[in-house]
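Researcher: Let's try something more involved. This one mixes different molecule types, so please make sure each is placed in the same coordinate frame as the others.
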Amino acid sequence: MQPFFEQQRSPSEDKRWKIVEATARRHGREPHALIETLHTVQESFGYLDETALGYVAGLLRVPLSRVYGVATFYHFFTLKPKGKHTCVVCTGTACYIKGAPALLAAVGKRYGIQPGETTGDNRLSLVTARCLGSCGLAPAAVLDSAVLGKVTPATLVEQIERGVKHDA
Amino acid sequence: MTLEELRKIAAAEQQTQQKYGHRVHVCIAAGCLSSHSDLVKEALRKEVLESGMQSDVLVKGVGCMGLCSAGPLVAVEPEGTLFAGVKAEDAAEIVAGLDSGAPAATSCPTDVPFFERQQKIVLENSGKIDPERIEDYIAADGYAALVHALAEMSPAEVIQQVLRSGLRGRGGAGYPTGLKWTTVAKAGEERKFVICNADEGDPGAFMDRAVLESDPHRVLEGMALAAYAVGAQQGYIYVRAEYPLAVKHLKTAIRQAEHMGLLGNSICSTRFSFHVDIRLGAGAFVCGEETALLASIEGRRGSPRPRPPYPAEDGLWGCPTLINNVETFANVPPIVRKGGEWFAGIGTEKSKGTKVFALAGRVANTGLIEVPMGITLREIIFQIGGGIPEGKRFKAVQTGGPSGGCIPEQYLDSPVDYESLAKIGSIMGSGGMIVMDETSCMVDVARYFMEFCKSESCGKCVPCRTGTAQLHDLLAKITEGTATPAELALVEELCDLVKHTSLCGLGQTAPNPVLSTLRYFREEYEAHIAKKECRAGVCQMHASGEVMP
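Model: All components are placed in one shared frame. Result:
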């Protein structure tokens, strides 16, 4: 009787599970590959849902509780899908003293969301980062994958408007 | 690979590069890349081709040149000219001026203290070599230390050089590197590990990222020398997932080094084998603590455990494990190549060598700098950093991130070394240095760091988990103007408790920002409480007289 380890087959036909399996296999499906495997899931699917957590638990023969514990311990992993666009505001020390709180307030006011939330129409997620390491460009933000340096509340909101409107 | 063969590769590469009359270096490290230096590089390449100068001009991507605030940066060798804030449109002017040496609109002087006051050991190749080409590193004396050590030196002799150099851990605590190596070397086990701690979680610090992005082979060579010295066969680099470019350059570097037989099985045809793998962090500050880092590599939550036993005796999977920081490993190849005495000749009596700092905040020149130990804070901030912009007044400099402290103006002439910084209530830390002016409220800064520690506490021990949360709430009350003098006394009591009873370094050092600001800026705390006044104008005070439930 091994209830935790039941699910060994891919949850669906989705090809992305093959990539996840490859990561697990590269590490000999050892329990220590847990974080590496979760990274691959998040990279492939964008977030970690219950199906993925259960599947990884079976794949590496690790209790689901431990998988859930690891997935929620580390800030990098997210259990919720992100919006179509993501705005990351750096709240590292250099950005903080150069006005990151004002950036968060401006974006929050315009879209009615707090850091960590996604707009109702799923268009924009607002998140914070501990430090992007772009302290020379403080305050910094990342819109999708573009790093924006020396931003002001007005320029940031304007850039987001442009990005979000682009695919409207 | 023999020393002879290595020299041949180096000579061939140097010859190839010297064929070019001008070598145009474009910074493609994260700072400049975020202002689109990749487009600048392409524009320069295209311009060189169009003007038919491709046999005389080499355009190459290099690592960080340091002056990140003025990026994207372009340098021309051998002339040594520098261009700052370059856009793709500026390519034509730069290429046109190569032969005449005519200055361009983006020309940037290099005879300024920012460049002249620095001394580069760790960053000597940074901004000079292409981080994605092993030949370029070899041409800059790369891997010479490793090949020489394997052929001519015993493991004990390598440790001897490191001991003699006086090198101390660059992660912040400053433990003598040679002693750590000796402990691991003495451990009798068969299986040993070498781990490079590249989980640079301090907000405001980006030294390790710059080293990994700009000169990844340097770190690999340092790790291989360490593995040879202590008798390890496997190495891990624990690097933040937030540093994709560093990860990419490391992966390329490992592949190239294995291909050349400088990593892997039977390195340089000796019996020494050393494999290096990358492990991605997942955004947990506590994983910079070595026992938490080990737990994370083992695929578990990053919870620390009490020490002793130290990882040097009981580390990864119970095996003796050497853990050093990126910058520590980067110091090793030149120490082995030039000898421990050379390194010990730089710096102060107890702190040898140089230190890399990420200079940021309210200072004119923000970026990456490397200075000899013993330089004063004033020299760093006002000469190299160019002082405070917009005519504002200097207030404090913060070193050591959430574990460090704020240093006020009266200590600006203190030398930068491990002991001096500890004496004035801060720490060397990993190298973040944030300058603050009169627009920063010190109580708010203390609250900011406590919020960080509260959210990063792993939750294992009570003093840290609950203490940081309570401290944060109390500090928040002070910044809101609703605290009483008794609560300030409570803050002090709680700081003392958290500092002395927490399990690991995170909790033990979490009160430092509060303690140091209380020591030097107590009147700001008192003004918040008694007069409900924030002189910096940062804190939003509740209207006086209003009582919070």
